[in-house]
Design brief:
The protein has 192 residues and is an alpha/beta fold. The chain has helices at 3-12, 35-39, 42-55, 70-82, 121-132, 174-177; strands at residues 16-22, 28-33, 63-67, 85-92, 95-97, 109-117, 136-145, 157-162, 167-168, 183-184. Helix 3 (42-55) crosses helix 4. The N and C termini lie far apart (39 Å).
């Protein structure tokens, strides 16, 4: 699948929203990619996961790791296509942690997957966690890089699609200046 086909899946899943949104990063945008509208549709989601798996099928990956919450679904399905195990990293007091008996052996080949990349906070936390186990990261993949390629990693990074989604600091948001009602989606709560 090419980038346009991936973005069409977002539209097909009603996962591309337009309005005035407060992002997880705290920034504002006129576009929001609602990953859960896509993730709740297995027929569409599995197409995404198969494409993510194809990018790393020759990498020797042994474990796929994703951050909670959307990353659980993606890690599981990508691992299913690669015929390897999947685990997930949960939020802890100082970054991501493995719970529920999950761990990695030193030298284990790990693929890290996530849904939407904006600031990279979740991915960088998972990378730090995997490195703390001295596992080998073979790559990082996301459904959508909304940073427009501004973020980089020390590992092969393969987003299925990349967009340069405009966002603003609160003080510079033209939608706030026009008193457009704002919607905050996602799981993290921020103060204005």
């Amino acid at each position: 699948m090419n980038q346009n086909e991936i973005l069409e899946l977002f539209e097909k899943a009603n996962a591309l929203l337009k309005g005035h949104f407060k992002l997880t990063s705290g920034r504002h945008s006129n576009i929001y990619y609602e990953k859960f509208n896509l993730l709740r549709q297995p027929v569409i989601c599995t197409q995404i996961c198969q494409e993510m798996a194809k990018q790393f099928d020759e990498s020797g990956v042994e474990t796929v790791v994703g951050p909670t919450t959307g990353g659980i679904i993606l890690a599981y399905d990508v691992a299913r296509y690669l015929k390897v195990e999947s685990i997930y990293a949960e939020a802890g007091d100082n970054g991501r942690v493995f719970k529920r008996g999950f761990s990695l052996k030193k030298g284990r080949k790990v693929l890290i997957v996530d849904d939407i990349l904006t600031t990279g906070k979740s991915l960088f936390e998972v990378i730090d966690l995997v490195k703390s186990y001295e596992a080998d990261i073979v790559g990082v993949s996301v459904m959508l890089d909304r940073s427009g390629g501004e973020l980089s990693f020390d590992y092969p990074f393969k987003p299925l699609a990349s967009v340069d989604a405009i966002s603003w600091d609160v003080d510079d948001c033209p939608l706030c200046k026009e008193n457009e009602p704002i919607t905050q989606r996602g799981s993290r709560v921020f103060q204005k």
